[in-house]
Amino acid sequence: MAKKATKTITVEQVGSPIRRPKEQRATLVGLGLNKMHRRRTLEDTPSVRGMIASVGHLVRIVDEA
Description:
Blueprint: E1 8-13, H1 22-30, E2 39-43, H2 46-54, E3 59-64
């Protein structure tokens, strides 16, 4: 069977988690982001999209492949 190409999404942290609720800080850590301007390439799944949506004001989508 041929391997299915997985879609990826690259996100960058652009907002500080200082003075944010614990849940938002934990979501950033779950995404692999904990410092400003750090980028992570993640698998594009509904759960990752939901995490990005919950901290949308702190991150930006750099690339969708």
